[in-house]
Design a protein that fits this description.
Blueprint (H helix, E strand, L loop, with lengths): L2 H12 L11 E7 L4 E5 L12 H11 L5 E8 L9 H8 L5 E6 L4 E5 H4 L12
Parallel strand pairs: 3-4
Antiparallel strand pairs: 1-2, 1-3, 4-5
The structure holds tetrahydrodeoxyuridine.
Length: 130
């Protein structure tokens, strides 16, 4: 799918974000190597620490459907500059390799980066620890 269409899709799904506490709505769209699309939004909870980011929802939806090879992830929020994903999401992304990540905002600003650029020297249990 074209990047501009993925961004539009992320903006649209962002409206489903459940963010009554922070009021900060985030939308994510994940495109797999096989061409499938998984969306995610942030989902907050009265017990704040249980809230989940949009990026992780999209990734977990894909993995739960048997998809672990990702082409690109698009993230959008209503930020002045492009949205910057949290550290926990960066670590979760890094579990699935170095795919493209498109950071954007609802005003149309965008920046193309990738997982390794977002989280250099990520912890990787699969690398021999000795
Ligand atoms: N949030 C995301 O969903 N993704 C990000 O990249 C940044 C933060 C959510 C978590 C919480 O619901 C709200 O935004 C404010 O932190």
């Amino acid at each position: 799918m074209k990047v501009s269409n993925l961004i539009e899709k992320a903006k649209k799904v962002r409206e489903n974000a459940y963010a009554p506490y922070s009021k900060f709505k985030v939308g994510a769209v994940l495109e797999t190597e096989s061409g499938k699309i998984y969306t995610g939004v942030n989902i907050e909870n009265s017990s704040f620490g249980l809230s989940m980011c949009a990026e992780r929802i999209a990734i977990f939806k894909a993995v739960s459907e048997g998809e672990t090879k990702f082409k690109r992830l698009v993230i959008v929020a209503d930020t002045r500059d492009v949205v910057s994903p949290c550290g926990a999401c960066r670590q979760v992304m890094s579990e699935f390799g170095n795919f493209e990540v498109i950071l954007s905002n609802v005003k149309g600003k965008m920046e193309v980066t990738n997982v390794e650029e977002l989280l250099p020297k990520a912890f990787d249990f699969r690398k021999d620890p000795t």
